[in-house]
Amino acid sequence: MAPSSHDNPSRPSRPTARETPANPVPEETWNTHRQTIQGLYKGQNMRLQDVMETMERDHAFKASKAQYLKQLRHWGISKNNKRDHHAPSAEDELGDKRQCTRAAEDTPELAVPAVNVNVSDFNPVVASTSHSEPQPNIFTSEFDNMTQAGYVPTTENGYSGSQPQMPMADPQEYIVDLGPWMSQGGYIPPGASSGTGFNLSNELYTSNPMNIIAEGNAQSSQHACPTLKGGVSSCPVSNKPRQAIHQAAQAGNLRGVEFLLKAKPQCAHIKGDGDVTPLLIAAQGGYLSIVELLLSHNVDVQVPITDSRRTPIHQAAQEGHFDVVKKLLEYGADHDPRDKNGISPLWSAAQQGYSKIVKLLLDKGASTETASKDGERRPIHQAAQNGHVEVVRVLLEAKAESNPEEQSFNNETPSPFLLAAQNGNVSIGWLLIKRGANKEFAMGSSKRQPIHQATQNGHADFVRLLIEQSVNIESREEKGWTPLMMAAQEGYLEIVKDLLGAGANVNAEEKDRATALWIASQQGHIDVVRKLRESGAKVISANGSKRRPIHQAAQNGHLNVVKYLVNECEEDVNAEDNQKATPLVLASQGEGDMRVEIMEFLCENGAKVII
Q1: φ and ψ of 443, to 5 deg
Q2: Strands (E), 447-555
Q3: Which of 101, 301, 462, 515 has the least C-beta neighbours within 10 A?
Q4: Quick check: helix, strand or coil at residue 206?
């Protein structure tokens, strides 16, 4: 077995003694860090122990492993594997690439002229160049249509119980999916459609669940090797015959490749469907010894996939195979080629967080400003969005633009700083601020600024950073919402306190005259309601609907808020909205004991049963 082209990252040893019971962590604190934890654990595929260490080191957040596991179950987050439940083994160190090898061992005889070859006769594996940096983030974003933020809409048959949410920023990612090529149906061509196409559109608004940035499946620029599901690929079957050299390269079968090249040296140059070469397959898999062997047969290092125009160095860079990238460059590979979507190897490596590869390509003269054709996303956008601090640092040191949005033809392109704010990455935020990033960049028609994104996603530390930088805390997005309104809606009490402490207008109104107190009452955040009231919030109705906070709290079943508004704010239990509905009428629409308790409380305090 050939050695890995670079060492695996060291894995922390598992504790043998039982952990000391940890202090309880409030649910509000968990929710503040939810997106960061989710992004590390599921998006970057970190081990739980690594997530815990990262959160403690970078975010001063500490919890026991048992608490993490319990909270992840509570959030419904699972990787569907057992990596975090056993000590690292040799199988873990090689990673999932061994699955390709096992598939090859089950493959029937592969025909070579005058010779019958069975892959299992050979030592089947040459080690893939394992990742010394973060694994790829593989996810997609689902975008739901949003109702307009504000008061609860009415219908012909009565009052709806829906609770409109402010939309959430969620730009999409571009991932090249990997998977074996062995199939019951025949050879599977790289680049074949699997239902996930290249999408550079920057959909900013989603609703429920709030933080979905690191969930789901791959959104890709090019599927180089489609993944098999249940042993059968969803991709069209190629009309070309399966070639042994492609299969052996895919499986990492060094001795198999050696045998085939000895039997037929021209095998090194065979192009499969879509002009996929053995070199591209081996480069993508990170099989350095096979790459070196093929290069010794004078193969063309520049042959791209027909449809995507991605070359071997694109695939090696995207998958984090540093030594393969280095070897390809030594043999004359272009350091800055572009695929059909304008994406370079550096762009792909930056997105995935491979700082060593980024630096190597920069040293060879690769551009920091490569922009995707559709969305004007650059390497620094991808690194900032995915939380790759070291990549952002390397790019900025190479004079990458800190405000590339100012040069974009697409005014809906987010800024790197906005993406850092959305994900709550203070380290990246500071790096960009030092380089002159625009802290109040307003994105397109939405008019969303970094403070809106940080607030709505619950990133208290980033909000504090922005407050310290004296950004406008009264900035409005297109619906007239301020950061305080967003924090009130989501129940982020600490952010509410910070904004009020910085002088936020507690009685600011959005376009329909809803205030932060009105919004918090609708959502049932009693602690936020109290804090706003203590800070001088007025109890007023929204424009047109005449809906007051007590209407919203009663309709949505928030007993504690109803009690507080009546007992502490002297809200009128018989107040009517513009359709003559009282809090009692609204509370009576829903089912459950809480609704009955609200009705009982209102009647005890003088509510009229018959209007």
Answers
A1: -90, 115
A2: none
A3: 101
A4: strand
Q: Residue 79: what pLDDT?
A: 60
pLDDT at residue 205 greater than cutoff 60: no
Identical fold between 413-505 and 511-611: yes
CA gap 152, 578 in Å, rounded: 13
For 61-86, what is each residue's pLDDT tens digit? 888 887 888 888 788 787 644 334 33
Q: Extract the tokens encoding 242.
A: 């399966």
Q: What is the pLDDT of residue 554?
A: 95
Cis-peptide, bond into residue 312, ω within 30° of zero: no
pLDDT digits (tens, 9 = 90+) for 546-561: 899 999 999 999 999 9
Question: How many Cα neighbours within 13 Å face the side chain of 303?
Answer: 19
Those residues whose C-beta lies under 8 Å from the C-beta of residue 220, and which sit 6 or more positions away, are 174, 175, 176, 177, 196, 197, 198
- Please give the torsion angle defined by the CA atoms of residues 498, 499, 503 and 505, in that order, rounded to the nearest 10 degrees: -150
Residue 335 above 70 pLDDT? Answer: yes
What is the percentage of the chain residues whose pLDDT exceeds 90?
53
Q: Which residues have CB under 8 Å from 481's CB, separation 6+?
A: 149, 166, 452, 510
Burial class (CB in 10 A: 0-12, 13-18, 19+), 113: exposed
CATH superfamily, region 413-505: Ankyrin repeat-containing domain (1.25.40.20)
DSSP sequence for 342-395: S--HHHHHHHHT-HHHHHHHHHTT--TT---TTT---HHHHHHHTT-HHHHHHH
pLDDT at site 31? 82
139 Cβ contact partners less than 8 Å away, ≥ 6 residues apart? 42, 43, 173, 175, 213, 214, 215, 216, 217, 218, 219
Spell out a b/e string for 15-33, using b for 16 or more CB atoms within 10 Å of the CB, else e: eeeeeeeeeebeeeebbbb
Domain ranges of the chain: 21-88, 413-505, 511-611
Give CA–CA dist 588/595, Å, rounded: 7
DSSP codes joined into one string, 298-309: T--TTPPPTTT-
Type of residue at 11: R
Q: What is the CATH number of domain 511-611?
A: 1.25.40.20
Residue carrying the six token digits 């504090």: 464
Report the distance separating Cα 370 and Cα 373, nearest Å.
Answer: 9
Q: For residue 488, which of 458, 519, 444 has the smallest C-alpha distance?
A: 519
Span 283-298, pLDDT tens digits? 999 999 999 999 999 9
Burial 231-247 (b: 16+ CB within 10 A, else e): eebebeebeeebbbbbb
